[in-house]
Amino acid sequence: MGCNSCSTGKDGQPRGCKNNGTCGTDSCNKLTVFDWLSNMSLPSGSQPFDCVEIRFKNSRKEFFRNTENISLSIGDIVATQAKSGHDIGMVTLTGELVKVQMKRKKVSDSQDEIPKIYRKATQKDIDKWQRCRAKEEEIKKRSREMAILLKLQMKISDVEFQGDGSKATFYYTAEERVDFRQLIKDMAKAFGIRIEMRQIGYRQEAQRLGGIGSCGRELCCSTWLSDFRSVSTSAARYQQLSLNPQKLAGQCGKLKCCLNYELDLYLEALEDFPSNDSKLFTEKGIAFCQKTDIFKGLLWYSYKDDPSNWHTLTKEQVQEILDMNKAKKPVMSLEEFAVENFEDEKLIFENVVGQDSLTRFDRPKRKNKRSKSKKRSSNRKRPAKNA
Asked: What is the pTM of this model?
């Protein structure tokens, strides 16, 4: 998710743009929408859409109306309307795709309440904005210390300054309702700014902070995932995953969002599969399902009296036995069906790049050159035998 000029330097800053995710190409920002209509001209007589999508810190995006008809393009820093004062953000999307995004997020473009864009940010605005951004980490640390002194059961995860530096929004997570009135008084007195507290969920916290998942890649919620769907343990059961909370939980402590990615394919594959609770009645005894393999279409059954001995059946064979049980036809045993499934598996390849050798990385022993020279000299000194 980075542009070509954003390789990291020694101090953690990008080598090229030096902007930490606010570069002009807008290719290293979180949840960026690609403007595939940027190279297309509008039909004659049509006016461009007057709303613009603007991104602030992390993944916070809002829509603003361009009432002054300012020529804007992706990557421009602009001063926007706020409840009090003004805010500074970066343009991430313009044109007709903004209308699609507003419809997707259920924001009506006919509302008069949509805030407006004041102007393009001057260098003075940008300098003041960057100074405020530089103070956020220190203020977050001090605010956490204040919350600990007041013994509040909350975690302040992020701080976002308004562009003019008159207001700061503190994002926090808490399991229960928190009375932070005294905390707001202490922070307003210490920092000299207006304070707004905003509670977020644990998934929103992971989205704002980002990180590396167990797969070795950046978190989906901080790169491209824009909505959070509910994830239940049934998604893990359908995919035959072990219900281990340490493996199924993500950085946010909730179930991983990626459990839903392949769930539809598993549900589609399980439509013609017999239920795991189905019992097979044979003359030898009642059989229960022990294991299923969705990809190979196999099920393993064992008798009630002999649970350690499993018999491999295909889903068609299981369905055939179930139909015979419904019709009250006798079924001798599972063995007569399972015998058909035993086939000799032929190895397609063997001994690839010496993988079966445990000593393939050991260095061969070097032969001693001195011993060779001694043997040669001894052979020369030996007298020739008489014929």
From this structure: 0.69
